[in-house]
């Protein structure tokens, strides 16, 4: 018998074994499927029915990459996602051929001027510059690897001049001066892992003039890594400022206020994606997170729906005033608005009591979260373009608008969206998911599960290895710098020398019949 015959026999035996093994597996699966009582499809169509569950499982990926067009995906379309990534990765915001917006649909627009401002006419800090890493795209062929390389890029950071800084709490002992109108919304350590929080902190620190909100999970060392200004959030769970019995710890609050980077505190009543307290699953509550939050490790955490001791506006304002007096810092509140009545009641109490917050963060129902419930995310609380004007106009009506700064949030991830929010009454804008995308989020919608495949919304050490802090921090910096550049560009197009000057007169609404009017016309 020659060598060829031997290999033929061996090959035949191997194939036969494989076939027999496959038949045995199929028979076993057939038996299991037939006898199980949970899935009717498998009971009637054993083995073959599993194909149905396979395609159901990979359906989100198929829709995201193959079947949804560039404007269809939710919460962020592929077009939205690419806009963020290009700003962060390439520090570029130039696009070709034309808009993909549906101009037949009703929507908001920014009123342009026949005589826009020249670059040299803009009220902007032209002296402060920063060098960041960005990618330069050389070739992007279809079948071979994209050719690109990192390069150093020096640019302005597009800050407001000192005299135009937005001052939060001008009458408190330690006012908070902000020279960039875009900052990071509340993101807790625990919801995101230490790699993501560190990359965001360092990137925002590089960009200068911005802030980072800790979220209700407390202040971690990772928030402080980049030297960025901090707004520390205090939620109904009192994480980070509670004693072992779960009561508010005023000594711990004072310790936090003495950290140089902490510039303000925010009392969280609710957020847009969940008009309730936060939730974090047990597997995310590591010993370190438990230490920071002052809770038990490896146990699920649910915040109460509200602060137990403060069930009305006067008592809440008393709490806010006490924090301000205790720390000497500005104190704000984060809310979700549901009606004109609620907005006016808030404004009226600010006027009548002579108390209240130094800033109000208005979060829209379209905002994001690490974990919530469908009924809350879809239907409870107004979206930002409805909520923001209610708060702005209520504060004006009761003569207290100048006392309170407004921070808005809810999918405000592009310069035009920021400009529209500023025109609707915001002084500053928060972004969360846009920044998450800069550090690698690919929108797998698994934030609540601790199995984020790119190491962003997870505390799993192995999964976090995917997120390289030294590379992602530059993307965060590039994104916020390019966003501020775009905001100045929009202001110039509207005939304004500063984005601080957007008003309701600059925001136009066009209905489905083509009729248009400014928000000032309907105020």
TrEMBL record:
- UniProt keyword Transmembrane, yes or no: yes
Q: Which part of the chain is the Glutamate synthase domain?
A: 145-496
Q: Which UniProt keywords apply?
A: Membrane, Transmembrane, Transmembrane helix
What Pfam family does this protein match (any one)? Glu_synthase
> What's the name of the protein?
Glutamate synthase domain-containing protein
Q: Which organism is it from?
A: Virgibacillus phasianinus
Q: Where are the transmembrane segments?
A: 6-30
What CDD domains does the database record attribute to this sequence?
Answer: GltS_FMN
GO BP annotation list? glutamate biosynthetic process
- Please provide, alphabetically and separated by semicolons, the GO molecular function terms listed in this UniProt record: glutamate synthase activity
From the UniProt annotation, give the residues forming the signal peptide.
none
What family is reported?
Answer: Belongs to the glutamate synthase family.
């Amino acid at each position: 018998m020659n060598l060829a015959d031997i290999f033929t026999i061996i090959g035949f035996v191997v194939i036969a074994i494989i076939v027999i093994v496959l038949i045995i597996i199929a028979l076993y699966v057939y038996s299991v499927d037939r006898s199980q009582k949970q899935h009717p499809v498998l009971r009637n169509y054993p083995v073959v029915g599993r194909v149905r569950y396979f395609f159901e499982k990979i359906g989100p990926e198929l829709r995201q990459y193959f079947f949804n067009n560039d404007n269809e995906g939710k919460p962020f379309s592929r077009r939205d996602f690419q806009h963020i990534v290009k700003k962060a990765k390439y520090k570029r915001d130039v696009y070709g051929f034309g808009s993909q917006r549906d101009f037949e649909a009703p929507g908001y627009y920014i009123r342009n001027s026949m005589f826009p401002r020249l670059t040299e006419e803009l009220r902007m800090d032209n002296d402060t510059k920063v060098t960041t890493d960005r990618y330069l795209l050389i070739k992007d062929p279809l079948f071979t690897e994209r050719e690109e390389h990192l390069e150093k890029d020096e640019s302005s950071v597009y800050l407001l001049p000192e005299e135009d800084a937005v001052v939060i709490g001008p009458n408190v002992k330690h006012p908070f001066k902000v020279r960039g109108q875009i900052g990071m919304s509340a993101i807790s350590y625990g919801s995101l892992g230490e790699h993501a929080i560190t990359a965001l902190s360092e990137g925002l620190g590089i960009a200068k003039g911005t802030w980072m909100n800790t979220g209700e999970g407390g202040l971690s060392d990772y928030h402080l890594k980049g030297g960025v200004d901090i707004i520390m959030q205090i939620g109904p769970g009192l994480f980070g400022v509670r004693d072992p019995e779960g009561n508010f710890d005023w000594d711990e609050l004072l310790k936090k206020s003495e950290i140089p980077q902490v510039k303000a505190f925010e009392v969280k009543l609710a957020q847009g994606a969940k008009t309730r307290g936060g939730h974090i699953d047990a597997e995310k509550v590591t010993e370190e997170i438990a230490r920071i939050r002052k809770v038990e490790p490896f146990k699920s955490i649910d915040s109460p729906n509200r602060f137990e001791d403060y069930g009305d506006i006067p008592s809440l304002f008393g709490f806010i005033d006490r924090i301000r007096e205790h720390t000497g810092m500005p104190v704000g509140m984060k809310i979700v608005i549901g009606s004109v009545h609620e907005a006016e009641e808030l404004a009226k109490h600010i006027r009548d009591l002579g108390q209240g917050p130094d800033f109000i963060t208005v979060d829209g129902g379209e905002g994001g979260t690490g974990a919530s419930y469908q009924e809350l995310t879809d239907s409870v609380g107004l979206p930002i373009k409805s909520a923001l004007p209610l708060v702005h106009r209520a504060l004006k009506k009761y003569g207290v608008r100048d006392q309170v700064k407004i921070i808005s949030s809810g999918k405000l991830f592009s310069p035009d969206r920021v400009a529209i929010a500023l025109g609707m009454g915001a002084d500053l804008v928060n972004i969360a998911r846009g920044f998450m995308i800069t550090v690698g989020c690919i929108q797998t919608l698994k934030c609540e599960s601790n199995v984020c495949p790119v190491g962003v919304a997870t505390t799993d050490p192995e999964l976090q290895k995917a997120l390289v802090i030294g590379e992602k921090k530059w993307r965060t910096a590039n994104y916020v710098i390019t966003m501020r550049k775009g905001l100045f560009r929009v202001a110039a197009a509207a005939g304004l020398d500063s984005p601080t000057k957007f008003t309701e007169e600059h925001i136009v609404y066009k209905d489905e019949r083509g009729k248009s009017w400014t928000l000032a016309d309907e105020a």
